[in-house]
Amino acid sequence: xxxxxxxxxxxxxxxxxxxxxxxxxxxxxGRVHRAWWVAAVAAPAVMGAGTFAVCGASTNGIMWSxxxxxxxxxxxxxxxxxxxxxxxxxxxxxxxxxxxxLTDRHDPRLLLALYYGMRGVxxxxxxxxxxxxxxxxxxxxxxxxGLLDVATVPPTIALTAVRGIYGEGGGAIVxxxxxxxxxxxxxxxxxxxxxxxxxxxxxxxxxxxxxxxCAVAAVLAPxxxxxxxxPRTGRRTARRTGRRP
Length: 245
Prior knowledge:
Elements: H1 2-15, H2 23-41, H3 43-61, H4 63-73, H5 78-103, H6 108-129, H7 136-149, H8 153-160, H9 163-166, H10 170-200, H11 204-220, H12 230-241
């Protein structure tokens, strides 16, 4: 009989037939609200979202949306331009893996500053590299930009998804909103790039604007404080104790 009561009680708790809301659901809601409020007033989260918006603007917003038509404006066949864009996608896999390895060992803020700085320089140089053929300087750009394309993601996660700051499970929520700003930046830049092309007859101004935005992000990245130190402390503690952070 005791076994029956225990089984029934467990089943009722699992299926919610007791008429009470499951405690886990209330806990998840509380974590979401807490993460929102903490992130809204936390400078690291706000600045992280701002720099990640620049990431979206300079990749999805202009590169993935404007590279093929911009190359076509310079006489390059669309199939060749699309192949170069696909090559960027291939190299961004390697760049992301290496960036994750570096993020585990170095300050993610400095890595972000380096990535955005190099990305900005490459975007400023791109208008002078485009032409009717895929010559070797353009191929070097494609490889270089591909390595940087998604390299900003690991250090951004390290700076925003910090459990010690936003609570258990809160870091993932904060990074989710940070990613929303990435997509917002991409959408705004995609529209702005097309508008500049229609108004000026080329994408040159769009490349310059995106490069300048990357320069701003490179300056802001080292100033992202607080959570930038938490992941490194957690990793050192994990190494001493033999447990995962």
